[in-house]
Amino acid sequence: MRMRGPVKIYREIPVAVGLALSQAAVAAPPDNRDPALAPWFESLKQPGTGAPCCSIADCRTAEFRQDRDGYEVFIDGRWKMSVPFWLRVPPDRIIDGIDNPTGRGVVCFTPEAGILCFVPPPES
What we know:
The protein is α+β, with helices and mostly antiparallel strands and about 120 residues long. It has one domain (about 30-120). The protein is about 25% helix and about 25% strand.
């Protein structure tokens, strides 16, 4: 009787490690980040669930536009996307009523999960 289970597991370990490392590379902190803002980014929670919006690695200030249907954000190469595009922000991902020290719209996005959170800029 041959044991195939352990062999299969050993073959899958390098694949899992490779995937984990590739995700770490995708989730690089933004260029020119302000370390003083890291606690604010890390405090962001998804509306309705209270789950973290991720970290400063997945959150960026972003170009956005607003119309009668809500917000759209511009997703570009900073999230390792090869083709930039506008993406509608789901209403249940908008965090209203908190201070936004960046002065700009902030989106927390991953290619796998989409928009996790969006914080509108302070009203002027």
